[in-house]
């Protein structure tokens, strides 16, 4: 979880740096009076790296998929108390209290 | 004994057959959908920033979004271990849900990044 956040943040920082490089590149083009035909190679590489890191983060940070089959291994224990028929409100003291009352009366 | 267990399992299967769609854990299903929405929204925001930095205009950006969402779907299916039916009731959940909602954030961040990088 923490690692995923860190990787996503790193990817975002790389993207911001790529944006800054592109702004500088455009400033350079303005000085040399050329037309913008496409981003420079280092920006493309940075953007790809940032996108890959962010994709990894986006796929790992939200958590794990849980099985939706009611009879799968990890759902067995959880689904038993979810069914109200299996709830038991009896306990040992219920039997005990009667005997205690009887004892106290005597 | 073998015959008895065989008939029992076949009886269970036939009774399970018609309402197979109804018997899944809705809570876990909701959890899985939340994960999908999270991934898609985050990746459409990042994709919008990338498209803006690379200077895509017009149809190119939408094609980029389509490619990105395809890649995301592939990643989600890989995350589910290529057995989508243990985690989702249909393929549309993985492939289509959150597509249009993500498109809105994509366009927003696309224009935002494009304005910052290329216009100002």
From TrEMBL, chain A:
The record's listing under Pfam families reads:
MMgT
UniProt cross-references to InterPro entries, sorted A to Z:
MMgT
Q: Which residues form a coiled coil?
A: none
Where can this protein be found? Endoplasmic reticulum membrane
Show the stretches that span the lipid bilayer.
Answer: 42-61
Q: Name one GO cellular component term.
A: endoplasmic reticulum membrane
Keyword Membrane (UniProt) = yes
Q: Which keywords annotate this record? A: Endoplasmic reticulum, Membrane, Transmembrane, Transmembrane helix
Per the record, the major location class is endoplasmic reticulum
Q: How does it sit in the membrane?
A: Multi-pass membrane protein
Family indicated by similarity: Belongs to the membrane magnesium transporter (TC 1.A.67) family.
Q: Kindly state the subunit structure of this protein.
A: Component of the ER membrane protein complex (EMC).
Protein name (Swiss-Prot/TrEMBL): Membrane magnesium transporter
From TrEMBL, chain B:
Instruction: Return the InterPro entries for the record.
Output: Emc6, EMC6-like
Pfam families with a match to the protein in the record: EMC6 (PF07019)
Q: One cellular component GO annotation, for this chain's record?
A: endoplasmic reticulum membrane
Subcellular location field? Endoplasmic reticulum membrane
Alphabetic keyword roster: Endoplasmic reticulum, Membrane, Transmembrane, Transmembrane helix
How does the protein's chain sit in the membrane according to the entry?
Answer: Multi-pass membrane protein
Q: Does the keyword Endoplasmic reticulum apply?
A: yes
Q: Give the source's domain of life in one word.
A: Eukaryota
Segments crossing the lipid bilayer: 35-56, 62-82, 94-114
Q: What does the sequence similarity comment in the record state about its family? A: Belongs to the EMC6 family.
What is the protein named?
ER membrane protein complex subunit 6
State the species of origin.
Answer: Flemingia macrophylla
